[in-house]
Amino acid sequence: MPKGYWLARLDIDNEAEYAEYRKLNALAFAKYGAKFLVRGMVGENIFGTPRKHNVVIEFESYDQAVACYRSAEYQAAKKHLAHVGETDLVIVAGYDGPQP
Fold it and tell me: What is the distance between the alpha carbons of residues 11 and 86, in angstroms, rounded to a whole number?
């Protein structure tokens, strides 16, 4: 079964709200086995709308990734995310097929 991933991009305008969001989201991430692969902005925006902060989080499966998002723990954290700034989140399943 392919892994699941959160792809998040943020422009953080309220550091206090972001700190509270991170404190609370850690509960959900621990419960659902999240693993950070990318966290921050060391890189180059090649095209598209840039964001100051980029995050890629890996889960054991797509179902785990979705369950984490829907969990009571994450929903409590998400309330703070609404006051952080511009945010984008996509949950995707990893690719488990043949490679070129």
Answer: 5
pLDDT tens-place string over residues 42-83: 788 899 988 999 999 999 999 999 999 999 999 999 999 989
Token pair recorded at residue 82: 């609404």
Contacts for 92 with CB less than 8 Å, ≥ 6 apart:
4, 5, 7, 62
Quick one: CA torsion of 86, 41, 36, 16, rounded to 10 degrees?
-50
Report whether CATH 3.40.50.970 matches the domain 4-93: no
For 77-89, the DSSP string reads HHHHHTTTEEEEE
Task: Please enumerate in sequence order all residues whose Cβ is within 8 A of that of 27, keeping only pairs 6 or more positions apart, or say none.
Answer: 73, 77
Predicted structure pTM score: 0.92
